[in-house]
Amino acid sequence: MDTVFHSLHDFMLHTESITYILIIAALIGITGFWLFLSDSDEK
Amino acid sequence: MPEESATSGKNIFTPFNIVAGIILAVGGVLTILRFTGGLAAVTNLSDYNPWGIWIGFDLLVGVALAAGGYVTSAAVYIFGMKKYHAAVRPAILTGFLGYALVVLALHYDVGRPWRLPYPFIIQQGTTSLLFEVGACVALYLTVLFIEFTPAPLEWLGFKRARNIVVKLTMLLTIFGVILSTLHQSSLGALFLIAPSKLHPLWYSSYIPVYFFISSIIAGLSMVIFEGTLSHRFFKGKMDEEHLAEKDTIALGFGKAASLVLAGYFIIKVIGVAADNNWHYLGTGYGAWFLLELLGFVALPCFLYAVGVRDKNVKLIRWTAALTVIGIVLNRFNVSMIAFNYHLPSSERYFPHWMEIGISVFIVTVGLVVFRFIVTRMPILYEHPDYKGVH
Amino acid sequence: MSISRRRFLGWLGAAGLGTTLGTTARAATAKHFTGHPGAGGVLFDSTRCIGCRKCEAACNLVNELPLPDQPFDDLKILDKTRRTDAKTYTVVNRYDSNSSGSGPLYRKIQCNHCLEPACASACFVRAFRKTETGAVTYDASVCVGCRYCMIACPFEIPTYEYDKALTPRVQKCTLCYPRISKGMLPGCVESCPTEALTYGNRSELLRVARQRISRFPQRYVDHVYGENEMGGTSWLYLSAVPFREIGLREDLGVTPAPQLTKGALSAVPIVVGLWPVLLTGIYAISKRKDRISDAEKQQAVELAVTQAKTEAEEKLAAALDQAKQQKEKEIEMRIKKALEEAAKAQAEEAAEPETGEAGEPEAGETGEPEAGETGEPEAGESDKPEDEEGS
Predict the structure, then answer these.
(1) Which of B16, B287, C23, C155 is 20 to 30 A distant from B141 in Cα terms?
(2) What is the per-residue DSSP string for C179-245?
(3) Residue A34 contacts C where some CB pair is shorter than 8 Å
């Protein structure tokens, strides 16, 4: 990505949009990972 | 209310029903005025003062006082304080109703309420803290709704669905705490972008932390406060567990609130030091700030402590009310009283009576719905089929 | 390539290595943005403004705004201080009390078209955009009407159509975006009879402004308002008096608006990332504590039960033993007695025989094993309250 950012605002729009996608992925991911991690405890 | 009388067979014209009926009727008229005449017809909002009590009270105070849901469920399910179990359902219910009413109030406040989903489905303004607040409030309302569903499901007798939801308790609680941390603090962070408008004593880079910590205080105090009111008006609906745990909850939550208030007091003072705002303390706004800090943070902190030491539940209850007033005062200060402090008094905001009318209307809707639910669903008592299964 | 290197350094900076790497890393992480290179702006020279309100009229005309009640050639309106509103994008105010000593001064108000617009940073639907022309534009088709832009704007520029029930919009100067993108001048600039307004490339305007200051140092305050205020604005101001005397705030600082919220926004992913770890950790600890205390309780209960049982058994055994011994003693005594009596009888022969006394102590002895039995229900009670706590 060779986007040129002329303003801090444009730069933050870019980074924050990616961050929000990562946040959603992280929330789903950590839930799944927790289930995977604690799977053996239940049995 | 008519439903209430239908089940109990009592007279419809109880004082509560008459007052609530009048408020709802007036609210209905104001609603029509708002959506036919625009904001100018019912509010004193201006180009200088775009946010009034619908944001200051309905949103900021509403969200802070609805914090009891996440605070209680975190205490019981995450920190394992099972002796407060009886407080969970009432707290979740008030939390859910609180957030639902916040969203309802926003429909009055924003210019085009049908576009409220736009930030998520049309165009995402991710640099805005309001985007974050909106996303978290929407998600948390959903979480609270799911957390609340066991009560109606037990009431309606849907055992299987109820058991599935109960299995999700831990996950929902953790999600609830994350989302609450984020949006409670972000409500304070909304004001970070306006350092030139908010008085320096209230503007601080710590303001997100202040809002988050004070939401914990608000949540704890509201649980005590609501417990008192519920005990007064719905005593017949309470089972032995609720009656027995009532004082335990007041003592435990009072102790926690006292401690958190102490921490809050410390970081507030550090905030003054961090921005070197000492000299403002001698001004009129400084006196007002000190009143908030000493009268509504330090004093309740001390009173809670005395109440807990002396096992004086009555004192704790009164302190809870004082603390809640303090939270309201803080949110009013940040959003209205200390906001636009630089403007001449002629340009300052004071709510129109119709704005207050809508706010009262929304609170009344909440009370009526709360009463409807509490008198029917297993909130203040455990459903006999699920007794002892926590 | 340069971006990826910059990113890599950014990661290093985030990992706390930035300080050790020194200035190279810092320069790469603390990015500096200078705006669109060709972006335009307007220079307002308050020493040239005569308060004729021609710019107001032109603005009203080119933006097709509703005509005001008082006509634009009525200068009496300058007696009161006005601000922009939903029907007025620009306003000229008169400032009588100023330190210039040469009569009233005038200042034009309109959107300053910040380089880092607070409104755009605050808008949660991206309705505001800093265009490549320098104009900050607004898109009413996505606007929800939250009015956070109005809270955010340090110049209090955006206004709202409060009286519209269904289609209220935020209203503000557009720098005549439709006109300047066609190569025309903004309406106000075109109409200004005294050249108090100059439209051009912002960096060019800055040069012009500095030139004027250096050429007439006694006429101007040595500051171009808008060069750095709130990170810089596309509108620039020159004045003969301190800027606060012509209604411009001097306490806004130079921090661009997005920078103000950057810290709070960056805390969000951290909370999302670490709270689950922290909370499940606390949960695991409290659960483990519960398990241990449960186990301890169970152990204690078991211990108490077995203790009570053995105690009871011991007591019972002791009682039985005692009873047995006593019985034996009694039998012995009886035998003794019988023997004695027999002996007596034998000795006296003629006397009557006496019995029955031995039956009484027997009844007293049977009471003792009963007392031993009451020990067992007691033990049973003692584990009951503990059971309740465990539930």
Answers:
(1) B16
(2) HHTTTPPPHHHHH-SS--EEEEEHHHHHHHHHHHHHH-TTTS-S--BTSSGGG-BSEEEE-SS-GGG
(3) yes
Could you tell me if residue B7 is inside a domain? no
The CA distance from C274 to C281, in Å, is 11
Q: Tell whether B271 is covered by a domain.
A: yes
Q: B348 in a domain, yes or no?
A: yes
CB contact under 8 A, B190 and C151: yes
Of C145, C146, C286, the CB nearest to B80: C286
Q: What is the SS3 assignment for B238?
A: coil
| A·B CB contacts under 8 A | 17
For residue B337, count other CB atoms closer than 10 A to its CB.
20
Whole-angstrom Cα distance, residue B240 to residue B246?
10
Against chain C, the chains showing at least 3 CB pairs within 8 Å are A, B
Q: Which residues of B touch A12 (CB under 8 A)?
A: 126-127
**Can you read off the two tokens belonging to residue C247?**
């209604």
pLDDT in tens, B22-59: 999 999 999 999 999 999 999 999 999 999 999 999 99
Residue B376 belongs to domain spanning: 17-383
Regions of chain C where pLDDT drops below 70 = 1-30, 350-391
- Asked whether residue B1 is domain-assigned, the answer is no
State the total domains in chain B.
1
Q: Kindly report the nearest CA distance between residue A29 and chain B, in angstroms.
A: 13
Nearest alpha-carbon partner for C82 in C112, C61, C64, C106: C106
Interchain CB distance below 8 Å, B127 and A31: no
